[in-house]
TrEMBL record:
<keyword id="KW-0378">Hydrolase</keyword>
<dbReference type="InterPro" id="IPR029058">
    <property type="entry name" value="AB_hydrolase_fold"/>
</dbReference>
<dbReference type="InterPro" id="IPR013094">
    <property type="entry name" value="AB_hydrolase_3"/>
</dbReference>
<dbReference type="GO" id="GO:0016787">
    <property type="term" value="F:hydrolase activity"/>
</dbReference>
<protein>
    <submittedName>
        <fullName>ADCL4 protein</fullName>
    </submittedName>
</protein>
<feature type="domain" description="Alpha/beta hydrolase fold-3">
    <location>
        <begin position="1"/>
        <end position="133"/>
    </location>
</feature>
<dbReference type="Pfam" id="PF07859">
    <property type="entry name" value="Abhydrolase_3"/>
</dbReference>
<dbReference type="InterPro" id="IPR050300">
    <property type="entry name" value="GDXG_lipolytic_enzyme"/>
</dbReference>
Length: 158
């Protein structure tokens, strides 16, 4: 789905672009996609000289669920001393939190095509467990215990 944009980025920037074809939900539940992206990134970085890439210039990028995966891979690799450090991460409209679908960004964009609040909730549930059975609870915010909500309030709040 992203071959044309990857080719464009590679051609215009004169950079090597590696696109990971990770397993998709709901057929493949979490953490399948994360493991695919992490394993591909580690393999690339361990064999970087084969690709003629400067180890100081590796960037991970993703959009939507891929943005979530790029962020997760970046966090995982940040503590690895056996691999080159990532130079940056580029996150394009990433899905980064599923604690609260009632934050202002969800409220303000709830009628914007592709960003419908219900769609974001549905896709988050598909990604996590392949089942949208608890969609109403998630939309209401009752899927998060009160003590956990308080714990994350400083990061996830209006």
């Amino acid at each position: 789905s992203h071959e044309k944009i990857c080719r464009y980025i590679a051609r215009e920037s004169e950079l090597v672009v590696v696109s990971v074809g990770y397993r998709l939900a709901p057929e493949h539940k979490y953490p399948a996609a994360y493991e695919d992206c992490l394993n591909a990134t580690i393999h690339f970085m361990k064999n970087i000289e084969h690709y003629g890439v400067d180890p100081a210039n590796v960037i991970v990028c993703g959009d939507s669920a891929g943005g979530n995966l790029a962020a997760a891979v970046s966090q995982t690799l940040a503590g690895r001393s056996d691999l080159p450090r990532l130079r940056a991460q580029i996150l394009i409209y990433p899905g980064l939190q599923a604690l609260d679908f009632n934050l202002p960004s969800y409220q303000q964009n709830q009628g914007v095509p592709l960003l419908f609040r219900e769609h974001a909730t549905f896709f988050a549930l598909q990604y996590l467990n392949g089942d949208a059975l608890h969609m109403q609870e998630v939309l209401e915010g009752s899927h998060i215990p009160p003590d956990m909500r308080l714990k994350y309030l400083k990061w996830v709040s209006p």
